[in-house]
Amino acid sequence: MKEQKASKQINFNKKLDNLNKNLTEFRNETIGKFEKADNNFDGIDKRFDGIDTKFDRVDKRFDGIDTKFNGIGKRFNGIDKRFKKIDGRLERVEIIALANREDIKEIKDEISVIKEQKDEIINHIDSFLKETMASKQELTVIGARTEKIRPLEKKIKVIPKLEKRVGVLEEKVFKKYK
């Protein structure tokens, strides 16, 4: 009976050890799977961080583009004022030249050339505004819009030359007739 009890105890201990071993293996496998899943989630988190960074860059690019458009809007206001001054100065030149009737054709030609250049800049600005502002919300147009800003800025840079040309014309007329 003692032998039988000892044999049952040994069998029970073997089964218990086997069960313990299986539970340990299962536990280790489960922990391994959770660690793997945890690593996968870390990888996913890093990918989302990367995506967030890309969106931040896109946001900054939009901010830059908006700033550029705001700057251009302010420059348009300044351009309007400058053109009004140019128009006023040209009117004075024309009045003085008409009063004296000398070289009037040459002066009128110069005035018309200056006005044509001014109108060309205004038309360029208007077409730029119509093309770009209408589609400001479209993401795909951003690259094209920034490319369209450059020629516009080149046109705007002509304005000081126009003002200088008006000044030369004024000097010519005022020296001659005053």
From N to C, what is the helix and strand string?
HHHH
Q: Rg from C-alpha positions?
A: 41 Å
Strand content: under 5%
Residue-averaged pLDDT: 73
Q: Give the biggest sheet.
A: none
Instruction: Give the number of DSSP strands.
Output: 0
State the helicity in percent bands. Answer: over 70%
- The shape, in one word, is rod-shaped
For the termini, the CA-CA separation is 143 Å
Spans where pLDDT lies below 50 across 5 or more residues: 136-142
Structural class, by secondary structure, is: mainly alpha
The total number of structural domains is 1
Number of helices: 4
Write up what this structure looks like.
This protein has 178 residues and is mainly alpha-helical. Helix 1 runs antiparallel to helix 2 (104-133), helix 1 (2-100) packs parallel to helix 4 (159-177) and helix 2 runs antiparallel to helix 3. The protein has one domain (2-177). The protein is built from 4 helices and no strands. 92% of the residues lie in helices and 0% in strands. The chain is rod-shaped, with a radius of gyration of 41 Å. It has helices at 2-100, 104-133, 142-156, 159-177.
Helix-strand layout with pairing:
Elements: H1 2-100, H2 104-133, H3 142-156, H4 159-177
What are the key terms here?
single chain; 178 residues; mainly alpha; 4 helices
